Amino acid sequence: MLMNGEAQFPEALTAKPSALIGFLGLSLEQHIIWNTFSEVSSRLRFVNMENLEFPALKPKRTTYDWYIPKGILKRNWVSKHLNGIPSVVVLFVQLDWKHPNWSEKILEVASKVKSVRGTLSGRGTKLAVVLIQKEAPLPSAASDEDSERASSLCSACELSSRSLFALPISTDSLRGYAVKLENAFYELSQNYYHSEIRGVKSHRDYLNKTTHLYLFVRHQFKIGFLYELKQEPMSAHKHYGHAYSLLMEVRATDTNIMEVKTVAGFINYKVCRLAFALNLNRDAIAQFRKHADVFRHKVGCDRLAFEHSAWQSQQCHVFAQLFEKTISSSSGNNAASQAQHPGVYYQQAASHAISRRQQSEEAIQEEPNNFENVNMNLLENADHLEYYGQRPWRPGKATLEPPDVERENSGIRALIYWEKMNVNDSQIIITLLKKSISIFEMFKSPRMTAHLTVEVAEELRKEHQYRESLELLKPVIKTYRQEKWSFLLNSVLSLSLKCSFLICAIPEYASLCLELGSLEIQHVSQEEKNRITGNLIKLLERQCPSAEPGLTSKSERAAVTEAFPLWTSNLEYNQNTETPLIDLQSISSSSFNIKVTFENQEPVTVNSPGKCRLRLVNTGTNFPVPVQGVEISINDWSIDRKFNELVFVGPCSYLDEMFELKLQQSDIDLGKFSIVSVVVTIGSKFFIKLKKSFVDEVVTDHFLIPPSSSSNADAILNIMNEPDVTKVVVRQRTPLLQMKVLEKNPILVGEWFKIKLDFFNEEDSKIEDFECKTILLDSQDPLIGDTTSVSYDPSSQLEIKSPTDENVEAYAVTKHIGELESSKSLSFNVFLKASTTGIRNVRIRIKYKIGDEFYYTLKQNLSLNAIEPFVISTEFLSVRQRNISRIYTDEPFLCIPEVRSLCSGSIRILDCRIEPRFPVEKYSEGEDDSSLKNSILFQKGLARDCFCLLVKRDNLSNHLDIQDITIGKYIMEWRRDDENDINANVTSVFELSPAKLSLGSLFIQAFHSPYGVKKSPFNLTYKLSNLTDKVQEYSLNIESSEYFLISGNKQVHFKIIPHQSRTVNYVLHPVKAGPKVPLPKLNLKSLRLAQGLDVNETLERLLPEYMIVLENTHKDGFVKGQIRDECFKKSSSIFIESKISDKSSKSRSFKS
Q1: What is the C-alpha separation between 538 and 216, in angstroms, rounded?
Q2: Same domain flag for 756 and 624
Q3: Claim: this prediction has a pTM higher than 0.70
Q4: What is the distance between the alpha carbons of residues 662 and 671, in angstroms, rounded to a whole number?
Q5: Confidence check: pLDDT of 1000 > 90
Q6: 21: left (phi over 0), alpha (psi -120 to 50) or beta
Q7: Where does the Trafficking protein particle complex subunit domain start and stop, copy by copy (predicted)?
Q8: Which domain holds residue 785?
Q9: Above pLDDT 90, what percent of the chain?
Q10: In degrees, to the nearest 5, what angle opens at C-alpha 603 toward C-alphas 597 and 608?
């Protein structure tokens, strides 16, 4: 029954069952114990019992032979076991093991236990005793005395030792003790519910299905619920399923159908809930579908059909709530899909609620005398019946036919009257539909969402919430327009028109009239379109439009009556009232249309102004439309034309207007005429503005007019099918100022690249406001903007920085020239500097005017490529001019920078220098001159410079055997060879290649004459220097040679102390002459292997291998001197070696 809550599920059934544990004996001071147990337990529900009051104990039945059940499920049974009867009663007593009056305390506790046990007599509730102790907890091995006291207490109380517990509260581990006790209480409760289930099952042998089928259903339900309390959901699900199957065997009649459906709904809820909890989602859905199919046609009394629909609605609603809760949890993510989700069941619930309203309205209409003498006393105590689902006027009557037909009819009338007076169907439907919409939106079903939104709007209209209904329909109308759902669109437009009429929403009403009155709208009769258009014309004449058809219900007729005064007051003249504006782009079609096009076939210039043609088309067939004025917005200005008299555009006709557009400077700058929007004001006494906006260059309206007998039909068709041409090119007169740009691409990184601009004025008169803008087009890119500078004077350093705006011209460098007389010329330069390679796009923009005419512009774009001017590579040589892979400490070496030109022209190298980086230093501090100074490097030319450098061991921060060091920077000052301006000088800095550095242990030098003469002896001296901090010991020998006779110690054994030197002298007597005579080979062996790993490499790197030996038979002194000079050049390595030994020599000597 609806009113007494059977359609609404009882709270006891929807709550999650938990075993009930009763606490007895806790005082207010011991609240910490209660709080701790409440926090630690998730399986049990604790209740603090001040006294032991339980429901009356039902007498045990020994036979069911003559017992006839009065109903299926008792109303109070679930609540009694859920909240009234605890499975375990826990008695708390404050008693320590060492209490001095232990014997007296035992008697006191035994008395309390006996009292509690007497109250629980006849029930299976378990009893436990907890001793609250203030002292520290007992050790793991309790004393014999404590064990005896515990045994004596159990004996005195007739209590099992497993039901006696101690709880120390003076320690920090109270929570741990509470968890242990909670587990013990849970085990006791399991035993209680197990015995209760066995007790219910024991009745089965005394029952038969012929007379006790209700009891079979009741007992299976009880077992299922007790299993839920026992926390065994699988067993509970099984027994609830058995209960449902047994209920299906009950014979359903008009007398008991409501009771059967009510109990079936409760059992189905339990089955579905447990199935979802057990992750049996498919089983839950299948069970509900089966449940809905079984009771689909079990209506019962025809007069109470609305009651059946209400029950169906509630079943769908409750299942949808279960389903939604499941998918919101992590375990139910795979339970729903786009075709199977809670929104479907919310929608079904709403559909049943709509059927409920229709059936209740029919039942109310069939009642005679408008419910006179209805007896509402028959519905008293409906919420306090003994069994669920029974009628309050015949409780406990399990008969096939009503015992009193007249009383039955009076009860049915009372139900119908209660339904009429107390149920707000629309509010129920709206709530269900909104829930369904939220789920469908979650599963991305826009069409279903739109459909349900329309249903909500319908219900809001029935609830007289017309403004809310209209706002809900606006996005739906937009969706149906986009998807071309013509039939649905017309239906929603009609509903919106009714709502806008009832609330006097003038802009919405006028917009809907224009759209519904359009010839493009289908599924609307011509008579209906004429009526709608006629209402619009009434509105324009400041008359109240006629009411919309279909508003026939009593409440709607009252709303129409209230709407007419509202229309009258809103249409009264008021100067402060803002004219309603309707955007024609926001509606799919209109009965009044705007077509615009440019008549210019060629670009618009100063001498040929633009012509814009505007046609206002009335596609209606019955009423002329009055037009007051037109406003056309073009670029950043507008044309406003007001007609002296109202112009009427007749039915199926059009108004043709031509506008001449005067050229503005902004139009020339923009380069086009662009119609932004057209606003037409229509109306004679009440005015409405129609706006059509244009975004694209060409706007095409696909409009087809149905066949018409009017002679203008073909012309209207042609006009409507024409595209809107809203843009036309605007061009300036060809400027006569001649501009020539001269540049030498590419740009060299680091230089101020010169762009020369030459101008010649061929205009008939002088030009004024002459200015030049240089724009870096890619300046928004930090890789370009931050590395590029533009200036007209490099010395002033006017530069473009990286902009943050998309308007690049706002960041241009501008030069104001002023005036230039006719037939005169002018030249100036623009400089651009790039610090990185890459393309630089530059725009040169010239602007000037002549007298009061428009400005003229000249533009030229340049694409300039910035490249590196040079490529630098580095080579390292020993003092013997041999390539070396590494350098050594305290040993001079030659750094050879190799410069390769990448420029297409010649480059003059003004100067070069090296800046060594510590610990590298110059071998001679006075060496600053470069061999490339004042030299010219041609295209793809190659030049080599030379510097003598040294790394001292004392300057190193770490003394690793091998490490990488950076040599330093090579600095070049240069300019293009054809530039003489000082601003053209560029300084480029290059990093020299790094080198590997090793710690040197030995440095050896050879001293001898630059050349020898055959049979003329000369001295050869070897100087060996120890570069380490340790004593070096060597064995030296010199090999015999067929080219020289050697005088001296050929084998020497010696030691060299740290940072000291040792010399070895020989006299060589040449026996053969030649330009490349091998010197005797010197062998050196370190007698300390750990320190002599690089000896042979050092000899090969530092000692000469050959020398020049001249014949001594030349008599011509001039020829002999020339040969000697040539020999001197070829023996430069020996000369270098001798110069290195002299610290005061100049670095130029190393470059000979």
Answers
A1: 74
A2: no
A3: no
A4: 14
A5: no
A6: beta
A7: 256-516
A8: 737-798+807-861
A9: 35
A10: 90
